[in-house]
Specification:
The protein has a two-stranded antiparallel ribbon with strand order 1-2. With 164 residues, the chain is mainly α. It is 63% helix and 4% strand.
């Protein structure tokens, strides 16, 4: 796509325009399938110029009406593995982002911190639903020493490798 002229919303709705800019549209599809909001996806894919004028949202809605986009989105969503969309690392990463985001509401940040504390084991929820300290630093160091000891003591040659 040449940026000598700014594409109109009508361009973004046109299947031929999408086919002529397949690589960009496919990148936009990938971002939106992975949960990136449409405005950010437009900006990241097609550039700043199409994402900052009075027609930005019209372009976004035009893309969503585009038959090429609809078909490519459905195809990619059907083919993507669930763990590519969400997995433990993505969950923790997004909770950390939220917990540290100065623009997020305080309640959202605190809730993210509480969830992270539970996931990581800093706090636990007992059978009564009460949150309490999970492991302390002594527990952490004891576990670390045990893991380190396991790494440094290989089994004797020809000996039993089973731990008892």
């Amino acid at each position: 796509m040449t940026m000598n002229y700014l594409p109109s919303p009508e361009d973004f709705e046109n299947r031929r325009f999408a086919e002529n800019n397949k690589q960009l549209f496919d990148e936009y599809v990938e971002l939106t399938v992975r949960g990136v909001d449409h405005h950010s996806a437009l900006r990241l894919t097609f550039g700043e110029a199409v994402a900052i004028d009075q027609f930005t949202w019209a372009r976004i809605f035009a893309i969503q009406r585009n038959p090429y986009y609809k078909q490519a989105f459905k195809k990619r969503l059907d083919s993507i593995q669930m763990n590519e969309l969400w997995n433990p690392k993505l969950a923790v990463h997004n909770l950390v982002k939220l917990a540290l985001d100065p623009g997020a509401k305080e309640t959202a940040r605190l809730n993210a911190m509480k969830e992270l504390n539970i996931i990581i084991g800093i706090t636990v929820i007992d059978e009564n639903g009460t949150t309490k300290l999970g492991r302390n630093m002594d527990d952490f160091y004891t576990q670390l020493q045990q893991k380190t000891a396991d790494l440094h003591y290989p089994p004797a040659q020809g000996g039993d490798t089973t731990k008892h």
